[in-house]
Automatic annotation (TrEMBL):
Domain HTH hxlR-type: 11-108
Domain of life: Bacteria
One matching Pfam family: HxlR
Protein species of origin: Streptomyces niveus
PROSITE patterns, per the entry: HTH_HXLR (PS51118)
Keywords tagged on the record: DNA-binding, Transcription, Transcription regulation
Coiled coil (UniProt feature): none
Protein name according to UniProt: Helix-turn-helix transcriptional regulator
InterPro entries referenced in this protein's UniProt entry, alphabetically: HTH_HxlR, WH-like_DNA-bd_sf, WH_DNA-bd_sf
Keyword presence, Phosphoprotein: no
Keyword Transmembrane: no
PANTHER family from the UniProt entry: TRANSCRIPTIONAL REGULATOR, MARR FAMILY, TRANSCRIPTIONAL REGULATORY PROTEIN
Amino acid sequence: MRWNEIGDVDCSVARALSVVGDRWTLLVLRDAFLGVRRFEDFRANTGASRPLLTERLNTLVEHGVLRRVRYQERPERYEYRLTEKGVGLYPVIVSLLTWGDRWMAGDDGPPVRLRHETCGHTTTPQLACPDCGEPIDPRDVRPVLRAESTS
């Protein structure tokens, strides 16, 4: 299978990777969640070349993860804002952040902390079952294929 065909596979992970499955896109999303909106700021923060960043932003807009909003008429300039679909990627970014904090942070510790604005505490979000509230661990979950769930 070729990489450009991955979005056609009957697998949600493969389909998601067809949109967000490269390092530059994940860095763009990281910055979007940090409040970055303008092309030059994305470029400065990620280190991506202009053509590469343009391609990644266009893909995210095409798939409805970001939307372009004009903020200046002359010259015409746009910023990029997360859509509802884009905000839905927050757990992915936070999971990568949490993994990186645990396994890749180094001697100085994590470079970013998440503060829950409601209570003011620094937090490490975790996956939890929406029905019982228990934390989800991969050893406690079994994938059920579509064919199994309908029989």
